[in-house]
Amino acid sequence: MRRKRWLRSSSASVPRVAIRTQIPWRVRVFLVGAFIAVMALIVATALVAYHYSRPAATVDDGAISALEVAKAREEAKQAVTERERSTALAVQLENQLQIDRATQQQVQAQLKALENENARLKEDLSFFESLLPTPANSKGVVIRSFRLQALDDGTKRSIQ
Predict the structure, then answer these.
(1) What is the pLDDT of residues 113-133, one digit of tens each?
(2) Biggest distance spanned by C-alpha atoms of the chain
(3) C-alpha pair distances (Å), 103 with each of 106, 107, 158
(4) How many CB atoms lie within 10 A of CB 126?
(5) Contact 13/7 with Cβ under 8 angstroms?
(6) For residue 148, what are the β-bridge partners?
(7) Long-range pairs of 64-71 with CB within 8 A, sequence gap ≥ 24
(8) What is the pLDDT of residues 71-91, one digit of tens each?
(9) What is the pLDDT along the chain (160 residues), one digit of tens a residue?
(10) In this structure, are residues 146 and 157 in contact, taking their beta carbons and an 8 Å threshold?
(11) Which of 14, 128, 136, 160 could tie 147 with a disulfide, CB 3.0–4.6 Å?
């Protein structure tokens, strides 16, 4: 028997017990209601602060005056005329550039033809100078002119 008493008094055989304070249901409902009211007040305050912190719209869509519309139309007309004037000027300058390029090509072709003619005339002049008789009082070998001409490989040269 002693043994049974001893086992009952040990901590292993004792059932667990939880101690709670008892709150009446009316007090619980009042506390939950107060919590919900405080949360609603916080949300309402945040919404009001958000609404008044946004910048106010300065222009109402229906409140644009006829004077502002007429002014905007006049500015649009001026912009269109300026664009047309600029476009016409750009077309004129482009045509002038094309004429200048064609003229430059013609001048280059004429310059090349004149250079070729000048070289040909120099060759003719050197040929006619070679036909002139040598001076009578000169002694020894007289070289009137010579020409060096490079070949394609650049190593051999001919003398005329």
Answers:
(1) 999 999 999 999 888 887 877
(2) 172
(3) 5, 6, 40
(4) 13
(5) yes
(6) 159
(7) none
(8) 999 999 999 999 999 999 999
(9) 676 666 666 665 666 777 777 888 899 999 999 999 999 999 999 999 998 888 765 555 566 788 888 899 999 999 999 999 999 999 999 999 999 999 999 999 999 999 999 999 999 988 888 787 766 777 777 776 677 887 776 555 545 5
(10) no
(11) 160
> Distance of CA 53 to CAs 46, 47, 49, 59, 60, Å?
10, 10, 6, 18, 19
Beta bridge partners of 149: 158
- What are 1's two structure tokens? 């028997």
DSSP 132: S
pTM recorded for the entire structure: 0.39
Please give the structure tokens belonging to residue 3: 């043994």
Tokens representing 138 are 């000169």
Kindly state the tokens that stand for 108.
């280059």
Give the helix ranges, DSSP H, for the chain: 2-9, 25-53, 66-131
How many Å apart are CA 149 and CA 157, to the nearest integer? Answer: 6
What does the block give as tokens for 39? Answer: 């949360």
Alpha carbon distance 63, 59 (integer Å): 7
Question: What residue ranges do the domains of the chain occupy?
Answer: 23-53, 68-132
* Residue where the block lists tokens 């106010």: 56
φ, ψ for residue 86, nearest 5 deg: -65, -40
